[in-house]
Model the fold of this input.
Amino acid sequence: MPASHDVKGIIRHVAEIIIEELKLEDVTAETFNPDMDLVDELGIDSMDLATIALVLQDEYKIVIDEDDYPKLKTIRLIADYIEEKISAKN
Amino acid sequence: MKTVSTLLDKDWHERYRRISSLNIRSSIYDVTNRCNLRCKGCFFFSSGEHQAAQEEMDIKKWEDFIDREKARGVNLAILIGGEPTLCMDRVEAFYKRLPTYCATNGLIKVPREKFPDLMVGISLWGSSEDEKTLRGRDTFAISSKNYAGDAYTYYLYTITPPQLGKIEPVIKRIADVGLKVHLQLLSNDEGVNGFSWREGELKDLRSEMDEMLDGYPQTVISSKYYHEIITTGRMMERTFGWNECPSVTESLDNRKPQPRRLINFSRWASDLKTVHRCCTSATRDCSTCKDGAAHMSWIMVNKREHMRSTKDLQGWIEVYEMFAKLYHFIPW
Done:
């Protein structure tokens, strides 16, 4: 379970998940630019997003609709999305 | 960290952006079990797939099925067969609902007044002599009359070993009738004598394919990186085969570990219930499969693996552009 549900904490945890799932080198959760375009710059595709989404769903106990994938362009946008989902649940 | 902009200059990055937003989700449909040709080496008949399912004859059921496919997220319908043009009502049902590509032998002309921008790929198996040997007739003589100058049609030229050193006249014939061509290789499922690839031939073929692309850039829709992968079966120190193929029907894909694959991909039989294992014959030995679409997709689904160098990522972009052009997601 992630340590923090505030946006800053979520950003850090999403970065950790992306680094782990995509086996990224030369970057840490601290140095990962949360505003980097994940498709346009990092080169992730819909299969990567689906993999990441599965982990996030499990970690945060939320549902990420596949139709929402195009919105999840950066780590910050993903964090905002998760935060909204968590708030809506509570 | 390597990113797209550290690897690409402005022009290449723009090309990358154009294709990275496409998100193509294709599936393949056997429109019918019947064909007006019986070609040696056609996997559909040699593997008995024409008897795998009883053809659905009710057009309403086809329409409902296509609506469900669209709802499933499919945004490119690839129609194969049998010969799809024997069932124009089914082709029309797809065409009205989805971007549709129709693979045909070209003997029956798709009426353009009804299907103005239907993408058509005409199968061609080489020279007149090879066509007569493998297909019983020179189909080019008919298909080229049916489709000369058509802006939405290209030839899908399956190169066979006897064609080595003789590809150019075929390309010229196609250029002369104002059409385009994409190149792929025969897998020789039926073991026709003299039509299996031998040691060394594929290396020569790769050079010849490269020469055709250089010599006829307005006619040949291809890329040198695709030529490399299709002739070597190797990509990024990996070998093509069952454990790597991306074009396996999703509901039948129980491979572990799961390789990168086409999302939502299925190949449906004409009863609209049965699915086939993959985009080609289930009896084919995957280690010798030369299927062009499967190799293209293999490259495309492995995008991040191509981010290790500028050359690799440019190769990936060229293959993706080739695929997008073949299905008219971007212009020729």
Observations:
- Residues 7-22 of chain A form the longest helix (16 residues).
- Helices of chain A lie at 7-22, 46-60, 75-89.
- Chain A touches chain B through 18 residues (CB under 8 Å).
- Chain A has a mean pLDDT of 92.
